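Marked as duplicate of an earlier ticket. Keeping the data here for the record.
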Amino acid sequence: MTDSGKKTAIDWIERNKEMIIEISDTVWGYAELGFVEFKSSKLLADELEAHGFSVERGVAGIPTAFVAKWGSGRPVIGVMGG
């Protein structure tokens, strides 16, 4: 990632930190066990869709698993929550 790309990402995070903290706190409050995190999965997937991601839900035969994609090309970023 270029320095300007890093700055863009950091600036976006800074502008949206309250929303990020709220989502994190909400997921923490759900305290769902692995593979039954239905509320957390829905919240995260819905939020990503609201921000322009295409979301494929129920991947790999796991109802709570999802893949979210935005844009094309590089960089490719993967995040695995557990």
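See parent ticket for discussion. The mean pLDDT is 90.
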